[in-house]
Amino acid sequence: TVIMAGKATTAIPAGTSLKVSGHHHDIAGIRPVLINASEAERNTVPFYMLDNTTVIHNIEPGNLLSFDSIDGTSAQLLAAWDQVR
């Protein structure tokens, strides 16, 4: 099983709003990466769950985004994610 997570390509400051946009479903400053679910940290955020969230801690380039680093995740999506991981 794999997770499509988001990895910072640039420094992302706290307060940044994340939005999936465009034909290719991009998020500015973040690229999607596939990682083995067994190797992922439990709090790694699936890429599309980053949509409409806000970064609450500065994120360095190369770091995966975690639930600890964002705010605004849909409670309904989070509950569904908790059921499958």
Q: Which key terms come to mind for this protein?
A:
single chain, 85 residues, alpha+beta
Number of strands: 5
Biggest sheet statistics: 3 strands, antiparallel
Order of helices and strands: EEEEEH
**Shape, principal axes of CA atoms:** globular
Per DSSP, what share of the residues sits in E-state strands of 2 or more residues? 15-25%
The stretches of 5 or more residues where confidence is low (pLDDT under 50) are none
Strand order of the largest sheet: 2-4-5
Structural class: alpha+beta
Helical segment count: 1
Record the SSE blueprint.
Elements: E1 2-8, E2 17-18, E3 30-36, E4 53-55, E5 70-71, H1 75-84
Antiparallel strand pairs: 1-3, 2-4, 4-5
What does this structure look like?
The chain has 85 residues and is of the alpha+beta class. The chain is 12% helix and 25% strand. It is built from one helix and five strands, in the order βββββα. A three-stranded antiparallel β-sheet has the order 2-4-5, with no helix packed on it. It has a two-stranded antiparallel sheet with strand order 1-3. The radius of gyration is 12 Å and the shape is globular. It starts with a strand and ends with a helix. The model has no long low-confidence stretch (mean pLDDT 91).
What's this entry about, in short?
The protein is α+β, with helices and mostly antiparallel strands. The chain is built from 1 helix and 5 strands.
